[in-house]
Amino acid sequence: MILGMTASALLALASAPTRASGETAQYIAAQFGEGRRRLRSSYFLGLGIQTAADELLRVADECGTANWDGYGAAPVKQDTYCQAQCFLDALPLGISAPSIGAEPDGHLTLEWHHSPRRTLSVSISPEGDLHYAALVGPSKMYGTEPFLGEVPKTILDLINRVKPEPTKMALLAA
To answer: What is the pTM of this model?
Structure first.
């Protein structure tokens, strides 16, 4: 424990957004961001998010020119990359990292896959639209949510249903 805080308290604290303004609030937000980056660098709490960020940059770079797939695909735009990076940054600590891909329309895709019957795909547009499709057992879910700086609850719930956090899996096994 750090200063008497449990891991769950740290995870909850590290995912709490702020809308405060002012010089002091900006300083606190900067310190908060630095602490979050350090926690994310830990594999246990970050669960590979830094690796996903590296993969995101690689995919965006490789697919940044027209016809990157040889079949007329649109290039991944800088705006799309920025939206996807902000989405990754907004994921709460403890969420497993997604696989990253690009689509022929120039959108970036983040995927969480546990099995053929437990998978989630989130397509991110340059405007910040999050188009998602999930298969969880016999249930199919799909829709569109706006990305406004925080991962929508609908998508977080689907991530947790498809790929439960390690702490939850340990509790379920106990």
So the answer is: 0.71
